[in-house]
Amino acid sequence: MKIQFVKPDLHQIDHVAAETFVVTLFEDERPPRGLAGLLDWRLSGRLSSMMMSNQMAGRFREAVLFPAYGRLPSVRVCAYGLGRVADFSPARAREASWFIADSLHKLRAGSFVTSLPGSPSAVVPVRVRMELFLEEMVRVFGTDDASAAVDVILVEPQEFHRELTEVVSTAMRKLRGLWK
Questions:
Q1: Is pLDDT above 80 for 168?
Q2: Where are the alpha helices (H) located in 23-160, listed in sequence order?
Q3: Taking the CA of residue 55 as centre, how many other CA atoms within 13 Å lie in the half-sphere pointing to its CB?
Q4: How far apart are CA 81 and CA 105, in angstroms?
Q5: Is 66 exposed, middle or buried (0-12, 13-18, 19+ CB in 10 A)?
Q6: Domain residue ranges in the chain
Q7: How many CB atoms lie within 10 A of CB 131?
């Protein structure tokens, strides 16, 4: 699994090649924020329109798959509900990470753009969300050669890139058995 980081900026996201674009939404947060807000802007309000017409409410474990309509460098968009902001906890972040990883694995997504579940909310610290996300990605995708071909592009604010890179490095060393 290859993980790279980009800033939450439309110009950067427009140049990231991945087959699937993944966003998460809270049920009680309108308009969409973070990566979901950028996606909504790029798709001319399509995500907001889906939420207003109840095609997507943001309920926990809700999943909606729709085409990118040629407005993104991705073929498809997967939107996942996180439930209410007040209910978001480390346990909820873990379950959401597993649910996202499992559905992407079933879709055979070889590459995807996403932000950590719960971003840009600071309810659960970014380091904890990254550790949980990695654990669930490895649990679902595995550590074999097939999972090595999966490209993950994480869209997070630049001030977190160094910390998140450290988390990824530590996790990869543990996986390789170099550090117990």
A1: yes
A2: 34-42, 46-52, 90-106, 126-141, 145-148
A3: 11
A4: 18
A5: middle
A6: 2-176
A7: 20
2-176 folds as Leucine Aminopeptidase, subunit E; domain 1 (3.40.220)
CB-CB contact of 5 with 165 (8 Å) = yes
Give 30-72 pLDDT, tens digit per residue: 899 999 999 999 999 999 999 999 999 999 999 999 999 888 8
pLDDT for residue 109 is more than 60: yes
- Whether 68 and 91 have beta carbons less than 8 Å apart is answered as no
Cα distance between residue 27 and residue 136, in whole Å: 23
pTM of the predicted structure, to 2 decimals: 0.91
With contact defined as beta carbons under 8 Å apart, do 102 and 138 qualify? no
Beta bridge partners of 5: 154
Which whole-number Å values give the CA distances from 61 to 57, 58, 78, 102, in the listed order? 11, 8, 12, 12
Quickly state the pLDDT bin for 120 (edges 50, 70, 90). Answer: confident
Nearest CA to 93 among 130, 58, 56? 130
